[in-house]
User: Fold this.
Amino acid sequence: MKKVWVAFLFIIGCQSQSLEDKSIQRADDFVELSSNDFLSSTELLTFNYDPRGQFYHPGGNCNSYRVFVVKNTLRLICYSDSCLVDEVFGVKVPFYVETGRYNMGVGSIVGYDSKYSHFLEPNFFKDAPLLKFQGYQKLLKEFGVFAYYTVFNGDVIKVYLNSNYYLLYSKGELSSEREGILNDKVIKDYQNGWTLREAERELDLG
Assistant:
């Protein structure tokens, strides 16, 4: 029985080590090849992103909304009294929508639990909103980013490589308690403000 238990622990240890090794390799690749492009993607970094909730704009009481790519449809959920549809959606002239849920097309924004509908000329857009957000998703895949969260106006960014390991970027000195990383294990330090960490708790995607 003891031999079986030892073998079980060995297998679990190998699997855990394998995940860490893979995360270190992905972190190395990201920092060397993609980190500068990621940090310069200003439109992308106006959002937080995870595979379940997709793109979330953390505007608090003002301009808080979420955007989903669902098959060939782009859906917008506006949580605030009003939300700004601007250049991140590919429009030439920004405008506001009220609280509600919307399907976005090239020439219209139609509410499906709101009385509000906004019909636009196709040339109102520089890019189709659906293609714009599909482009953001493609960019994240190229970067190897599983999820990311920005806080303090982008001064601190968590870039998850999987649900257990993340790269932390900080422009200045970190406060472990403020950033919620007090018990997270430091795996590797990089130059230019990046650190690979193992989260104490697995990323909860609901």
Remarks:
- The CA atoms of residues 102 and 112 lie 6 Å apart.
